[in-house]
Amino acid sequence: MQIGNMKVPTNSLEVLLDATKKIYKDSSGKEISKARIAEILGHSPGGTFSTKMADLRDYGLIEGRKNNILVTKLGKQATVPRDDSEKNAALLKAVKNIPLWKKLLEDVGTSIKPENFWHHLADITGAERSVAKDNADAVRKAYLKDVGLIKFVGEPIQAPLMIDMGEAETADGNLSMEAQPTGGAKKTIGYIGFPEYSKSLIEIKDKLSYNIAKQLLKAIGVELGEEKEEQAISKEEEHTESEESVKNGSLEQ
Q1: What residues form DSSP beta bridges with 32?
Q2: Which of the residue ranges 42-56, 57-71, 100-114, 116-130 would you say has the lowest mean pLDDT?
Q3: How many Cα neighbours within 13 Å face the side chain of 116?
Q4: What is the DSSP string of 192-249?
Q5: Under a CB-based contact definition with an 8 Å cutoff, are residues 186 and 206 in contact?
Q6: Which residue has the higher pLDDT, 179 or 197?
Q7: Phi then psi for 197, rounded to 5 degrees?
Q8: Which residues pair with 7 in a beta bridge?
Q9: Contacts of 76 (CB under 8 A, 6+ apart)
Q10: What confidence tens digit (pLDDT) does each residue in 25-51 have?
């Protein structure tokens, strides 16, 4: 399916990984013909089979034409990995080989609410609004199904690309992780990214965006167990300071 100037895969990555594994097992890593692949996958030559082959190429799982088709290194890593880390990296790369998926991963991350998603789709693909709106739900579900195969460290935290300084603080004074992307006239100081937690960058512009970055680091610290150690150190320092205060007070008397 074509949405604006970008292609949406017909087959999910999960289906294509299964196909790649069958092709690799039958070919033993050697060249294989298109006809043999059709036989392995239970397809007859035609539109459905051609579409699946095109999707396999788009994800980077196979290469070659006609009688010299090969499972790529990426295809091998994704289907017969040495370990979970290699497989995860391969899946992420395969997803990023789809231009629309790569852009969505960078712009909106791994948690997409259905409300107004078509706005993002229209902006990214250049599609007419009516086309984006009609296909938004199908595209969103297909995208989330693919990225759902990727294992992130802990729960992926959605860090917006640009922080809306007017809405980033909640009523209880905490910082909101759901601030929406926006423009902003303040000078950019720098960017910070959290690859395993979010596919977007935080733009550091002022104290508020700096604090949001710190909050994300704190969340990562909790996940890694570092936060508990820091709290223990902090309490120890407080205890030491308290003892010193008592000691100093006694000396003064």
Answers
A1: 69
A2: 100-114
A3: 2
A4: EE-TTT-SSEEEE-SHHHHHHHHHHHHHHHHHHTHHHHHHHHHHHHHHHHHHHHHHHH
A5: yes
A6: 197
A7: -110, -30
A8: 2
A9: 24, 29
A10: 999 989 999 999 999 999 987 889 999
The secondary structure of residue 172, as a DSSP letter, is T
Residue spans of the domains in the chain: they are 2-147, 156-253
Least confident of 65-74, 203-212, 222-231: 222-231
H or E element at residue 190: strand 190-193
pLDDT at 175 over 50: no
Burial class (CB in 10 A: 0-12, 13-18, 19+), 22: middle
DSSP sequence for 71-133: E-HHHHHHHS-SSHHHHHHHHHHHHHTSHHHHHHHHHTTT---STTHHHHHHHHH---HHHHH
| Distance from C-alpha of 118 to C-alpha of 14, rounded to nearest angstrom | 24
**Are 34 and 68 in contact, with CB atoms under 8 Å apart?**
no
User: What is the maximal distance between C-alpha atoms in the chain?
Assistant: 96
Whether the Cβ atoms of residue 90 and residue 97 lie closer than 8 Å to each other? no
Nearest alpha-carbon partner for 186 in 210, 170, 150 = 210
Q: What is the pTM of this model?
A: 0.61
The residue to which tokens 């790569």 are assigned: 102
Instruction: Considering the domain delimited by 2-147, tell me its CATH architecture.
Output: Orthogonal Bundle (1.10)
Q: Which residues pair with 70 in a beta bridge?
A: 63
Q: How far apart are CA 239 and CA 224, in angstroms?
A: 25
pLDDT of residue 214: 73
Beta-strand pair 6-7/62-63: unpaired
